[in-house]
From TrEMBL:
Organism: Ramlibacter cellulosilyticus
Lineage, uppermost ranks: Bacteria, Pseudomonadati, Pseudomonadota, Betaproteobacteria, Burkholderiales
Pfam short name (any one): ADH_N
GO annotation, cellular component aspect: cytosol
Protein name, as recorded: Quinone oxidoreductase
InterPro entries for the chain: ADH-like_C, ADH-like_N, ER, GroES-like_sf, NAD(P)-bd_dom_sf, QOR-like, Quin_OxRdtase/zeta-crystal_CS
Length: 323
C-alpha cells in the first residue's frame, strides 16, 4: 500500500494523518509518479485550516519531484523512468506515490538534482511569474519584497540580483536579514525594529518604489501602500498574516495605486507557458545564478511538525518532506 498524509477535518497540524491509500494504474492522459521529495508551502496551511476550502477527507500538497513509473494511453511526451516535477494538479503531493495528470509534469534537466528541484517547483516558478509576468522587471528597478528570507524570498533575492534589480527586502530578525543579504538582497528592513515605509522612502530618496510584492497581507498592507510611487503596483501574492481588505478610495488617496492578486494557474497554463517558465528558471540554476537547497527536511510521517515550524516562523528557505 502507498502512504499519504490526509486530513478528515480542518484545524491545526494535529489533523494531518499518515494513511494507507490505494494507487492504481494510470488511466488515459495520466502518469504514476514515485516521489523522492515533496515540497511544503505556506499555502498548504490555508487548505489545512479551511481558509481555502476542500472537500474532505482530502490529501495535501501541491508540488513534488520524483520518477515516472508508468503512463496511461495517449501520453507521449513523458515516459517511464523520466525525472519530473509538478506544481499544478489536485492536492495530494504529501505521499510516496500517486497518479497525476501527465500534462502538469515538468521534465527535470540533467544537472538539477531532485533536492534542488523540490525547492523550486512552486517557489521558483512563483518567483518567475511574479518577476517576469505579473510585473515584468527589466533591470534597474528598485522594488520592495516582503518575507525576503522565506522559501520564495531567497529565490527572489537571487533572481533580482541576476536581473540587475535593487531589491529591498523585509524580514523579522537580524538573522534572517543576514541570510537575505547573503542571497543577493540589496537592502534589508528588519520589521521588528524599523518602520517599513519610512525606511523605503529613505532608501529611495523619498520617491518610493514602483512595485511591492506582498505575501504577508493584512499586517503589511498599509506599509506596502505607503511605500509605493504614484500609480505604483501592489502585488498581493499571499496572506500569511490574514486576508487583505482594501477600500478602493484609499487606492486613490495613496496615489492611484494598482492592485493585483495573481494566481499561478492563470500564468502557468497552457502547458507551453509552464514549460517556458520552467526553462527560464532551470537555465538560471544551471548557470549558477540561482542556488536552492532545503533548509529543513522532515520524514513524510512528520508533516505536522513541518507545519508547526512553518507557522511559528522558525524557518528560512525551503522545507521538504522525504517519503
Amino acid at each position: 500500500m502507498a502512504k499519504a498524509i490526509r486530513f478528515h477535518e480542518t484545524g491545526g497540524p494535529e489533523v494531518l494523518r499518515l494513511e494507507d491509500v490505494n494507487v492504481g494504474e494510470p488511466g488515459p492522459g495520466q502518469a504514476r509518479v514515485r516521489h523522492s521529495h515533496v515540497a511544503v508551502n505556506f499555502i498548504d496551511t490555508y487548505f489545512r485550516t479551511g481558509r481555502y476550502p476542500l472537500a474532505l477527507p482530502n490529501g495535501l500538497g501541491s508540488d513534488a519531484v520524483g520518477v515516472v513509473e508508468a503512463v496511461g494511453a495517449g501520453v507521449t511526451d513523458i515516459q517511464p523512468g523520466d525525472r519530473v516535477g509538478y506544481l499544478l494538479g489536485p492536492q495530494g503531493a504529501y505521499s510516496d506515490v500517486r497518479v497525476m495528470p501527465a500534462d502538469v509534469l515538468i521534465p527535470l534537466p540533467d544537472g538539477v538534482a531532485d533536492t534542488t528541484a523540490a525547492t523550486l517547483m512552486m517557489k521558483g516558478m512563483t518567483a518567475q511569474y511574479l518577476f517576469r509576468q505579473v510585473f515584468p522587471l527589466k533591470g534597474g528597478e528598485t522594488i520592495l519584497y516582503h518575507a525576503a528570507a522565506g522559501g520564495v524570498g531567497l529565490i527572489a533575492c537571487q533572481w533580482a540580483k541576476a536581473l540587475g534589480v535593487r531589491m529591498i527586502g523585509t524580514v523579522s530578525t537580524d538573522e534572517k536579514a543576514a541570510i537575505a543579504k547573503a542571497n543577493g538582497c540589496a537592502e534589508v528592513i528588519v520589521t521588528s525594529r524599523e518602520d517599513i515605509a519610512r525606511r523605503v522612502r529613505e532608501l529611495t530618496d523619498g520617491k518610493g518604489v514602483p512595485v511591492v510584492y506582498d505575501s504577508v497581507g493584512k499586517d503589511t498592507l498599509m506599509a506596502s501602500l505607503d511605500s509605493l510611487q504614484p500609480r505604483g503596483t501592489l502585488v498581493s501574492n499571499g496572506t500569511s498574516s490574514g486576508p487583505v481588505v482594501i477600500d478602493t478610495t484609499l487606492l486613490a488617496v495613496k496615489g492611484s495605486i494598482w492592485v493585483t492578486r495573481p494566481a499561478m494557474i492563470h500564468y502557468a497554463t497552457p502547458r507551453s507557458h509552464m514549460l517556458a517558465m520552467a526553462k527560464e528558471l532551470f537555465d538560471l540554476v544551471l548557470a549558477g545564478k540561482i542556488r536552492s537547497e532545503p533548509s529543513r527536511t522532515y520524514a513524510l510521517a512528520d508533516a505536522a511538525d513541518a507545519h508547526r515550524a512553518l507557522e511559528s516562523r522558525q524557518t528560512t528557505g525551503a522545507t521538504v518532506l522525504v517519503p
